[in-house]
From TrEMBL:
PANTHER family in the cross-refs: 2-HACID_DH_C DOMAIN-CONTAINING PROTEIN, D-ISOMER SPECIFIC 2-HYDROXYACID DEHYDROGENASE NAD-BINDING DOMAIN-CONTAINING PROTEIN
Keywords: NAD, Oxidoreductase
Domain of life the protein comes from: Bacteria
The protein's name in its UniProt record: Glyoxylate/hydroxypyruvate reductase A
Pfam families per record: 2-Hacid_dh_C
D-isomer specific 2-hydroxyacid dehydrogenase NAD-binding domain mapped to chain residues: 106-283
């Protein structure tokens, strides 16, 4: 039997060993390599990547598809010499569930005044009567209504929250007030008190979380100012504007899981800001086994003649 095409595992900043082990379990009949055998290695059919080295994939003559090992794909497009082959996003029920867990955790923490109670605990203060509106009186706005955003919206609805959403294209989601396009962004920003950001990073969305956006978040029925939760991409936010908005009262609090530069520098003012919760890009940290399984299933189906799922639109950038 002829040897099946190799899988290139190209990751930067991650330990490749857990991914190699998962690939060995899910694809024991395929050879996994960490680097091509020369720039024009003809044995490589597929590439599984996270922040791959620029130019690494450019000249592989038999490369059939690229698979992202994370929910985003902007790390792939950082390569200016990306070859013209299909790119597939990873969509895993485990990853989706973990992101929705993170969103629900942060929304509930701010809704139920977690930061304020932790501050009271530090000072040994017993004060019961902080405002506690019902979830049905609060609106959460979801920026980004892809797979992750839609699932988070459904989970928040099941907890009783009113939910609005914004996406580039118009869509209908039962029970969600959906706004679309730049022309409806002002109405969306006036619709909610807690904002969850799950947008992809594209040239159009880079830096979208800036002073102008925060100033347009005007709804303050139950909170002194809106809350920002960003679990999308670090490039979406202007961190100096977040700090300024918190200090000016345009925002009342922020939960940030992603950052302009990662790891977050120890000198960053975000670490010690009293109104900011920092988590280390851990919102949807799924296990390699949970992600590799669907990728190998896609490859097997593709080789039987099926179309790849979750393909990236190169023009849109996601």
């Amino acid at each position: 039997m002829a040897e099946r095409g190799h899988i290139l595992l190209a990751v930067t900043g991650w330990d490749p060993q857990p991914w190699q082990a998962a690939l060995a379990r899910h694809a024991p009949d395929r050879r996994v390599v960490l680097a091509p055998d020369g720039a024009q290695d003809p044995a490589i059919d597929y590439a599984l990547v996270w922040n791959q080295q620029a130019g690494l994939l450019t000249h592989l003559p038999n490369l059939k598809a690229i698979f992202s090992l994370g929910a985003g794909v902007d790390h792939i497009f950082n390569d200016p010499e990306l070859p013209e082959v299909p790119i597939a996003r990873v969509v895993s029920p485990d990853l989706t569930e973990r992101m929705s867990e993170y969103v629900a955790w942060q929304v509930l923490d701010h809704h139920r005044r977690g930061p304020a109670y932790r501050k009271q605990q530090e000072g040994c203060v017993w004060h019961e009567f902080l405002p506690q509106p019902a979830a049905s009186e609060m609106t959460v706005g979801i920026m980004g209504l892809g797979e992750l955003g839609r699932d988070a919206a459904r989970k928040l609805r099941s907890l009783g929250f009113r939910v609005s959403g914004w996406s580039r294209r118009a869509q209908q989601i039962e029970g969600i007030d959906v706004y679309a396009g730049a022309e409806q962004m002002p109405d969306f920003l006036a619709s909610a008190e807690i904002f969850v950001v799950l947008l992809p990073l594209t040239p159009e969305t880079r830096g979208i979380l800036n002073h102008g956006t925060f100033a347009a978040m005007t709804r303050r029925e139950h909170l002194a100012a809106p809350v920002l939760i960003n679990a999308g991409r670090g490039g979406l936010q202007v961190e100096s504007d977040i700090v300024a908005a918190l200090d000016m009262g345009l925002l009342s609090a922020a939960s940030l899981d992603v950052f302009e530069t990662e790891p977050l520098d120890a000198a960053s003012p975000l670490w010690g800001h009293a109104k900011i919760t920092v988590t280390p890009h851990a919102a949807a940290a799924s296990s390699p086994d949970q992600l590799v399984g669907p990728i190998i299933a896609q490859i097997e189906a593709f080789e039987r003649g099926a179309r790849l799922d979750n393909l990236v639109d190169r023009r849109a950038g996601y």
